[in-house]
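Q: Structure for this?
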Amino acid sequence: MDLKKYFQFIIKYNTVFIFLIMLVVSALVSDVFFTSANLFNLVRQVTPVGIISMGMLLVILTGGIDLSVGSVVAMVGVLCALLTQTISLPLAITASLACGLLVGSLSGYLVSVHKLAPFIATLALMSVVRGLGFIFSKGAPILVSENASVLTDFGSGSFLGFPNPAFVLVIIFAITVVILKYNVFGRIIIAIGSNEEAVRLSGIKVSAYKFIVYTIVGGLSAVAGIITTARTAVGSPVMGAGMELDVIATVVIGGASLSGGKGSAVYTLLGVLILGMIGNIMNLLNIPAYSQQVIKGMIIIFAVLLQRFQTDKK
Amino acid sequence: MNRVELRNISKSFGGIAALKNVTFKVIPGEIHALVGENGAGKSTLMKILSGAYTKDTGQIFIDDTEVQIRNTHDSRKLGIGIIYQEFSLVPDLLVAENIFLNKLGSTGFWMKWAKMNRKAEELINSIGFSINPFSKAGDLSIAEQQIVEIAKALSEEVRVLILDEPSAVLGSQEIKKLFDTLKRLKKEGVAIIYISHHLSEVFQIADRITVLKDGTSSGSLMASETDRNSVIKLMLGRSLDTMFPLRDSIIGKEVLKAVDISQEGKVTGVSLAVKEGEILGIAGLVGSGRSETVRAIFTADKLEKGRIFLSGKELQLRSPYKAVKMGIGMVPEDRKKHGVILSLSVKENISLTNFKEITDQFGFIKAKKESNNTKDLIKRLTIKVENEYQEVSKLSGGNQQKVALAKWLNRNCKVMIIDEPTRGVDIGAKVEIYNLINELSQKGVAIIVISSETSELMGICDRIIVMRKGEIQGELTKQEFSEEEILRLSLGLSENVAAGKSFPWMN
């Protein structure tokens, strides 16, 4: 009986357990893992995915999905680098952000007004935006202008021992937590994912909320793109390839349901760290990149199976 | 010999006993009605028999041999067929595919379309209906879906047939055909268990009646040896004096006027008006365009043609958002799909219609205010809940309906449209809902009620419009109310037909 209770407890908090297991395993198999240099590196690596995952969580909560995020990272990264060469830094950042918001609002428009399936609409935009990134950059990586050293300093620098961009993630995470728990916006988004028609018949403008969540995820992808460019001082059209899958995986590992209505910002952040640790520890162990993909995929399946167990129990 | 014997069955959900030592027997060739208020345990008992739930304690006997029913597969092998209250059809599959869904895997590699369709058609015809086996299940009306459900259950050799509220969505003619089928099956020796809230139906069809109350059996009676009032007494533990409240609200100025509403293929040129404090009923068979008319007024569906006036001013409605803003509220027909969000709490459901009251200018929810607001409504509607955080899916049908109503009481609407206010709701809750609707009208709200239960409309309305095939067939004032007249208008018959006893099943 007691054993059963423990088991149920583990199933219920599976994300936390997987996180703890990853921590322990990482510490055991590598001496380097718990060094500040490695942890610094880990945090820096997961920041872009983490930032986008908060927006993706909102979209997934409404029952949607956005596949265009990786492409937006690349296009915005390229644009931002290009713009630093011609206009002032604040303007360049504003314009880059605006581009991300624009792509997001386009997805939102197609999904909410024209009722396109989110998968299809954002799959098409994923291709369009990736192509635009290549067109803007003519296929080559673009260097950030030396006049924009404020940007690159921020991207590569640290504060209180944490990489600067991590603070952006923390702020966005905090806002997401608060919105989902205390704000009517979060409440309505969860309600939409649970039963869209019932929400509409309650007199709520469902399409407006859907439009907004896609716009948000577009904007956050732009933030991630700018941060990546800031860190590397290069905007490359191949950045963020396959990133959409990582972002979706983190949200799913965090226990969200792809049919909407269920998910949490805290667990999503744990999902981000779990996915980051998988990559990090395998790098430390010198596992070749191709094997890494296989192992990563298997761990995701394991995590989601644990959650299935929980829903089946009901 | 008993075909089915459930002996001392108990079942709890999370510490709450749903069934306590229930014993229930059905003999072959018998129609045995199972009645009781919502939450009395009828559906739970039947789900144990059909393998959807497993019992905690007790024994199940089929033909006097003890059997183990662990899942629906076990029960199907024993010849137990069940037609659920919630439909289990796959909307994207064809009618024939749905009927033979259980066997699709075992017919070999190739689909035998011709054979399957022919058999599906035969089955549907044998219960007195004709539905194209090639149509998609999702395109059928709710009544037709119910027919397909029945055909599906009969597609296998059944020895025990369970029907859970089969008539809730059927019109009176369809019910008659259903009853003919049941009588035929009864002659063939099938044991039939019939769950219903409609006592008039129960007395028409059942041989024996078992009453469940609060998870225990309060007795089995031969239908011929008892009457409606005794059964109600057993169900409620008290007798029912008057179901309907006294109508004495002051009827004022016209509030809502809809002119020439037309929806392609569903509604043709319907005009209606409701006054302050008035309750207008809309009667008609399933598919007569009742729901479509009010959905068009509320713009739940796009209003294709027609004009809507509120207090004399024309509204340009494009979505429920605007309608609600202008003071129109609607409790939709399908409670579980549209009325409430099952996976959210009572509080979250109720707040959905009126966030302005409980949020600050940045949209942050004032938790205390929200809780108090919800608690007030729970108390006012006597919703039975543990607390305001309980998930709506855990409530009984009657309490879910009260939540759907509470949502709109939360907002001071000028017009309330209530589609099927008491479908699948037990008698106790019905009376409470009638009182509530009456109370609203006394406060000056203009109310439109749609119902398949004629007695309900006659009990609470001031005026009734009867619809047929998308058009208004007639309008009755309170003095003109009669079940025969409403039925005559909904069937579109001439007067002398209705005067005779052409509808023996109505009595």
